[in-house]
Amino acid sequence: MGIQKPAWLEALYSQKFFVGCSYHETAKKNEKNVCCLDCCISICPHCVPSHRFHRLLQVRRYVYHDVVRLEDLQKLIDCSNVQAYTINSAKVVFIKKRPQNRQLKGSGNYCTSCDRSLQEPFIHCSLGCKVDFVLKHYKDLSPYLRKCNSLTLSPDFLIPQDMGDDEMTNETPHSTIVDSDEPMSWSSGSSGSENMSMVCTQEIVRKKRSGLYVCGRSANKVSDEDMTTSMSRRKGIPHISSVLIN
Question: What is the greatest pairwise CA distance in the chain?
Answer without folding.
Answer: 105
